Amino acid sequence: MSFGRGSVSCRRHSSGGLPQTLRGVSSEVEHSAFNRLVVGSIPTRPTIYFATSFDRVRSLHAPPLLGSKYISNETGDGTKISRYHAPFCAWGASLKSRWKIHKFGGSSLADADCFRRVAGLLLDYPDSRMGVVVSAMRGMTDALLHLAILAERDDDAFNDELHAIGERYSAAARALLKGDRLVEVLDSWSQDATDIKDVLKAIALVKSAPQRSRDVVAGYGEIWSARLLAGRLGQESSERGGTWIDAREILTVSQTELGPTVQWQASQAKFDRQVPQAFSGIAVITGFIAADEEGLQTTLGRNGSDYSAAIFAALSDAAELSIWSDVDGVMSADPNRVPEARVIEQLTYNEAMELAYFGARVIHPQTLGPVIENDIPVVIRNSFNPSHSGSRIEAAPATADNIKGITAISGMALVNLEGSGMIGVPGTADRLFAALKNAGVSVTLISQASSEHSICIAVPQDVAQRAKQVVSEAFADELASGQIQRVDLTESQSIVAVVGDGMAGTPGIAARFFGTLGRAGINIRAIAQGSSERNISAVVDSDESTRALRAAHSGFYLSSKTISIGLIGAGNVGATLILQLEKQARRLAEIFNLDLRVRGIARSKSMLLGDRRIDLAHWQHEYEQSSVDLDLEAFERHVNPDHLPHAVIIDCTAEESVAARYADWLQRGIHVITPNKKAGSGPIADYEVVQANGKHGSSHFFYETTVGAALPIISTLQDLIDTGDEIHSVQGIFSGTLAYLFNVYDGKTPFSAIVREARDSGYTEPDPRDDLSGMDVARKLTILAREIGHKTELGDFPVQNLVPESLRRCSIDEFLGQLAEHDDEMKVMYEEAEATGKKLRYVGRLNAAGEAAVGLESVDADHPFSNINLTDNIVQFETDRYSSNPLVVQGPGAGPEVTAGGVFSDLLRLAKYLNEGD
């Protein structure tokens, strides 16, 4: 072992039965908030003075040596001070004298550049005493263990692989060191290589590699890293660097059923002997390796370097432990499955342990034991991004969010024991778990109904069949007699858990969790919540676990409310909607934490699919460059991936073939928003399937814009019905196009010219005959009739077609060119209405009996239908409540802006529902 200069050591002693280690005045001293600290200099029984004011001084006498963690003395005025923690390791030392322990993993020490980065990072810290626990270079431990495997096979290729390891290490050393330091490191490696070969030859001779031999070989990776980093530090700063500690000379462990257990008293004594009290600088310490009670080398197991760091933090009574890796901190979810996962800035020890157990691999639960016992904060940092503050883990962080993270364990199975004979029978659970224990089956989750009718447990998938067999055998008699009905096994399950100390005592957390999963269409197989209330777990099918993680993460405001959007139909309305989404995206994200992510745009023959999202500001250029042939099945799969919890398809076409897919989309959990009237007015049987799938499944069907563009016509009708009002009639001008035509038409400008102008302005469908035929109004009236409860079909009521018979089957251009030949017919109807003081309006009418009619009418000049703006729709509801004075909804009903705005409103309504479950 090599060791350099030092200062006062943090030593752990007991005196007179008092607790160990005086530390942390900044944490707790009851009764007073001290604003000044004076340290006495009497060497035997020092006195610390805490001044709360200039004329009042309290004194506290510490026992000999380092004092006690807990002190209770009375001051001169009788005030009792207790729970005292000093902020220094030895009397007379300053706050800066406490150790700071850093740990660097293999990814942070992968090559020479990484070592150089780590050395620079450490030298930038001003701390006077630093311990740096290191892992082996990335992949080194596996490479060393493979040597033992080759030797066990008597394969002399281990010589070549050991040489390759040496070449890698030598290259790193030559890039980092020079002169005597380089020679010393390489000479030491050569001696180690000779020792390793001796071990490998012994393994090859007996064709067996006992665990102790594997430990010896595997442990060299940390030794080499420690020498290399210490050499680099010494070369860069001879006053601070150059020291390294072989942990085998300090850490003493014994092997138990629970793994390696630290012999604290022996380890502390060795630490106190090995580390000079006057040490000052940076000491590099080998992670992973230790010695057993016989002094023979062993390891702390995988993730052992983190555990080593925590142990040395405890032995040195460190002020803080920093664990450096290649991530910015503890994440709120697995970023590989939840791209929007973020770093958790602060969390408690308990939260960290829960997250670690459920798959957050940044820190191992075992690591936290020593730091919890000694109340040492842990900071998770990224050596590749040291400017990031990382995650701070301590007893009581400043923030107390309800939920800190969402995590999951995959590869699970459920075993369910069910039977009426279990009710009220003591010992059933005891027999169940005893049988599993004897079979060596670990139970991860337990869920039992209060009726005692069933007990459900989650076990690892690889022991699921054995668990079922063991349980079946343990209750064979009850199964035979019928007291227990069945032992079921459900494989391919995952446990999704929400974790947070702030959940305790906070109503509604479980409701939000389960509601969020339900709205994402995820079925929950079993649930469990610990009595501490810091963990709520749900078991779901493994193929839905990613969606569940994403939904829960979004539902608890840990990420934006992300909705994957597929837009079909990028014509006038669709293109306008894209423009509106692009303009509002930033505001919605900043204010409402809402991420409306357009991932697919489709036209009649082609489609554009965005990997993460489509750049809406440049979507047309992107479409021209990257669109592919239309495949609606592939489009659906892309818009509705497993990793995104919510998907919606917006249909801005008028295509019946697209509307025919709504029922299937809704059944598969894809929400549908549309101004397309074909589904709402198609065959009643198809309509009922769409409505049923939208109302009773996990998906939702929004179609407000099918009748009145952005006007709340359908929602108004639904509100009237739902609140018990009786509908007498619904009548109105339902076509913004026809409203425009007859508002503008004055008998002077030819009707055909007005039609062409309206088409050029985007007020009509691409084929104006779709508006003039009256079928658009008929479809809207059909939709409203069905909302009232009638099984109305198109064709059940008269519809006046304003397109001359001779022009109904020709091309659009021919229609527009020949429509002028029929201008006189329209002029005659206009003049007849004007002669009686009335106005022409195209009106749809529906009564309570379901009788309907659509056609051109002459209405009085003072009628509400006569006094509308250019493209207004106007709908009049006569009900029990609104009889003498009908309820009127009026506003623009045509144009891409208002229709797109209505679709956008439906999209925001969907987002609100997914967030709140309204």
Give a short summary of the structure.
With 918 residues, the protein is an alpha/beta fold. The chain contains 31 helices and 35 strands.
Could you please describe the fold and organization of this structure?
Strand 16 (378-382) and strand 17 (391-394) form a beta hairpin. Strands 8-11-7-6-14-16-17-15 form an eight-stranded mixed beta sheet, sandwiched between helices. Strands 27-26-25-24-28-29-30 form a seven-stranded mixed beta sheet, with helices on both faces. The chain starts with 36 loop residues before the first strand and ends with a helix. With 918 residues, the protein is an alpha/beta fold. The protein is elongated, with a radius of gyration of 38 Å. Residues 4-96 have low confidence and may be disordered. 37% of the residues lie in helices and 21% in strands. It has 31 helices and 35 strands.
Round the Cα radius of gyration to an integer and report it.
38 Å
What does the overall shape look like? elongated
Spans where pLDDT lies below 50 across 5 or more residues:
4-96
| Helix-and-strand structural type | alpha/beta
Query: What is the spatial order of strands in the main beta sheet?
Result: 8-11-7-6-14-16-17-15
* Helix percentage: 25-40%
Task: Kindly list the characteristics that best describe this protein.
single chain, 918 residues, alpha/beta, eight-stranded mixed sheet, seven-stranded mixed sheet, 31 helices
